[in-house]
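TA notes, week 10

Several of you asked for a full example with nothing omitted. So below is the full record: structure tokens for the whole chain, then the designed sequence directly under it. When grading your own attempts, check the secondary structure regions first.
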């Protein structure tokens, strides 16, 4: 669910292709329940974001699947960094972040920000959001937030962010992650279907 930094593997599903949540972690005994958990949760398709910030003029960021909209009033989102993440303390110190929604074709960018070590921003073009957090070139859109609250949640933190800025939405399809592989949506035929979700139809009390 988060970057490849020291800590237990938390990626649901097999990792047939390096993904944004391929955390190596310390050696551990085979765990049938954990393996089953990863297999089952790997069948829940997610988008891929890169959570970025800037601290002392140095950009930081990591690939993250565990990003979601949380509230309309007030506008809140959430993401879940690993307790072993090296990037999360930088975000916490800065107090703000930008969630970049990756587009189909940005698999290599997801791998770069999901791997441990090295300069993830080397050669990666970006521009600053109003807070200074990096907006990656080619992202479908971005959401800028101030850190609102942090909760301990097992081997991760659950971080809520108050939305302070929204980026433009460019044409394209999102990058998806499903059963340990990158995928893209099928554009289908005919006009787009209108789904009455909380984001599209505020009178509903539930997401779906």
């Amino acid at each position: 669910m988060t970057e490849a930094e020291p800590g237990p593997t938390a990626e649901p599903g097999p990792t047939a292709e390096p993904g944004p949540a391929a955390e190596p972690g310390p050696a551990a005994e085979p765990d049938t329940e954990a393996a089953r958990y990863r297999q089952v949760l790997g069948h829940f398709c997610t988008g891929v974001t890169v959570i970025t910030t800037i601290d002392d003029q140095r950009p930081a960021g990591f690939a993250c699947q565990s990003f979601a909209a949380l509230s309309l009033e007030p506008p809140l989102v959430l993401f879940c960094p690993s307790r072993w993440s090296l990037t999360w303390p930088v975000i916490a110190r800065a107090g703000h972040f930008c969630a970049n929604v990756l587009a189909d074709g940005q698999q290599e960018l997801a791998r770069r920000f999901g791997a441990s070590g090295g300069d993830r921003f080397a050669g990666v073009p970006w521009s600053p959001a109003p807070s200074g957090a990096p907006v990656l070139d080619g992202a479908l859109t971005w959401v800028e937030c101030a850190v609102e609250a942090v909760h301990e949640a097992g081997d991760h933190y659950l971080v809520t962010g108050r939305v302070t800025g929204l980026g433009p939405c460019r044409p394209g399809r999102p990058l998806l992650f499903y059963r340990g592989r990158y995928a893209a949506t099928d554009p289908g035929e005919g006009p787009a279907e209108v789904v009455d979700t909380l984001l599209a139809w505020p009178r509903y009390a539930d997401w779906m």
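The two ends are 23 Å apart (CA to CA). Use that as a sanity check on your answer.
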